[in-house]
Write a structure and sequence with these properties.
Blueprint: H1 22-36, E1 44-47, H2 49-59, H3 61-82, E2 87-96, E3 103-104, E4 116-118, E5 123-136, H4 140-206, H5 212-246, E6 254-257, H6 272-282, H7 284-304, E7 310-321, E8 334-344, H8 352-418, H9 424-458
Helix pairs in contact: 1-2, 2-4, 3-4, 4-5, 4-7, 4-9, 6-8, 7-8, 8-9
């Protein structure tokens, strides 16, 4: 089947330790996949859990959106910093006005025309440059700059949180695909055993050592095994489709899974207190909460600012025709300038500043309580994740023993039946037990890797 994952082992022997050189190979493969990017099209792609996690982050639109939000937050920091710098404004104006009667003095010096105080100027021109420098804004500028920086920290932590969620989703999809591929091998082996049972039973019927009911039971067992194989193939196809979609892979690309459930198991988890300390230090959700609380604290100072004085230095240069500062006005270009300080203080704002400050303080208290609740849930997540991994690792040994015992029982039942000492029902029961033990072995080994991935996410890795 095109696009079907290929796993090289057909059975699940005893676990073998992983080679020491595999770690750096996986890291190198992950880096290579990130460099290739989302658009790279390959005929066959060999994946490990870590390369799948790296590619999921590299190609995900959700991760790209988180990166854009971080860029927006960084630009907001630059905008807040710009408020502390001088603001320079250049202006130019041209206006056409209606004609008005001129106003001139009713008398004039001998030999001189009357002085026109208000000439009829129908076209005006103006240019100018203004420089404004805030000297004191009640702490608003500093508070806005600080709040924008904390918002940037929150966006960076949120991007890390998104990446961690994507890595977990990729690891879970990868190990689910490995489990589904292993289930195909198990059901195929069950079908082979059922086919052999039918052949043996038919031979015994010809030899007079079995009855027709035994043959019918063997046929039913073979049909059931085929149904199981078909179901397992459909589940594997769905699992690989889920993995291919998450990794943005071409539908025609063949995915080869590098791991099998017969390989090494995850390491035993460290002590619970060690994991809790790691989680409280490294979980991006807690970093987001801390940055948001810090930003809210800065905005409290921003809410207080309107109740404080505001002071700014101003400088203005004008070059206009006519220049309004010259009297009497003349239809000529004139320049003028001014330098000064402007101050303002809102003495009463109806209680708005006080209410805004109280609202900000209440928001900070609420955010602090939510952070405490988040820390509690993270601690519980770490505890349950560690317990799940320990339980899964302990269950692997028992599942391996159960499969070995079921295999021996199935072999013994066949031998007894061939010798005429056991009925067909004993073989059917033994094969059903073996099928269940094989599926259980697959499930607990996959559960160990899934629990390891969940614990890694819980501690912030």
């Amino acid at each position: 089947m095109r696009g079907q994952p290929r796993v090289h082992s057909r059975t699940l022997p005893a676990p073998q330790p992983a080679p020491a050189h595999m770690a750096w190979r996986c890291a190198a493969a992950a880096a290579l996949l990130v460099v290739l990017g989302a658009g790279a099209a390959v005929a066959t792609l060999r994946l490990t859990a870590e390369t799948a996690a790296a590619r999921a982050v590299a190609v995900s639109p959700v991760a790209a959106a988180a990166g854009e939000r971080l860029t927006a937050a960084q630009e907001a920091v630059r905008a807040a910093d710009g408020a502390a710098l001088p603001q320079v404004t250049a202006s130019a104006a041209l206006a056409r006005r209606s004609s008005v009667p001129e106003f001139q003095l009713p008398f004039a010096a001998p030999g001189q025309p009357a002085l026109v105080l208000v000439p009829d100027i129908t076209t005006t021109y103006g240019t100018g440059v203004q420089v404004a420098e805030p000297l004191y804004a009640g702490g608003a500028i500093a508070a806005r700059r600080l709040a924008s920086r904390h918002d940037g920290e929150a966006s960076a932590a949120a991007r890390s949180q998104t990446a961690a969620d994507l890595r977990l989703a990729a690891r879970e999809a990868y190990w689910d695909a490995v489990r589904a591929a292993a289930a195909i091998d198990v059901t195929a082996a069950q079908e082979q055993r059922a086919q052999r049972l039918l052949s043996d039973t038919s031979a015994l019927l010809d030899a007079g050592m079995a009855v027709k009911a035994d043959v019918l039971a063997a046929k039913e067992r073979l049909a059931s095994a085929r149904v199981g194989r078909i179901t397992a193939e459909a589940a594997a196809a769905n699992a690989i489709a889920q993995l291919r979609s998450l990794l943005q892979l071409d539908p025609d690309a063949t995915v080869e899974l590098a791991d099998s459930l017969a390989g090494a198991l995850p390491d035993a988890p460290p002590p619970l207190e060690v994991l809790r300390r790691r989680a409280l230090a490294d979980r991006p959700e807690l970093a987001v909460a801390a940055a948001q609380i810090a930003a809210a604290s800065a905005r409290e100072q921003l809410a207080r600012a309107p109740a404080r004085p505001d002071l700014a230095a101003l400088a203005q240069w004008d070059y206009s025709r006519p220049n309004q500062r010259y009297f009497p006005q003349q239809d000529e270009w004139k320049e003028s300038w001014s330098v000064g300080v402007a101050a303002s203080w809102t003495l009463f704002d109806g209680g708005k500043s006080r209410a805004d400050t109280a609202a900000s303080q209440a928001g900070q208290r609420a955010a602090a309580r939510e952070r405490d609740e988040l820390a509690r849930r993270i601690a519980l997540e770490v505890e349950t994740g560690r317990r799940n991994l320990e339980s899964a690792l302990a269950a692997v040994s028992a599942a391996d023993d159960a499969r070995a015992a079921a295999r021996e029982r199935e072999t013994a039942a066949r031998e007894r039946h061939a010798a005429g000492l056991a009925a067909m029902v004993e073989i059917l029961d033994a094969e059903a037990q073996l099928a269940g033990a094989e599926q259980q072995q697959i499930n607990v080994r996959a559960a160990a890797w899934l629990a390891d991935a969940a614990l890694a996410r819980a501690v912030g890795r």
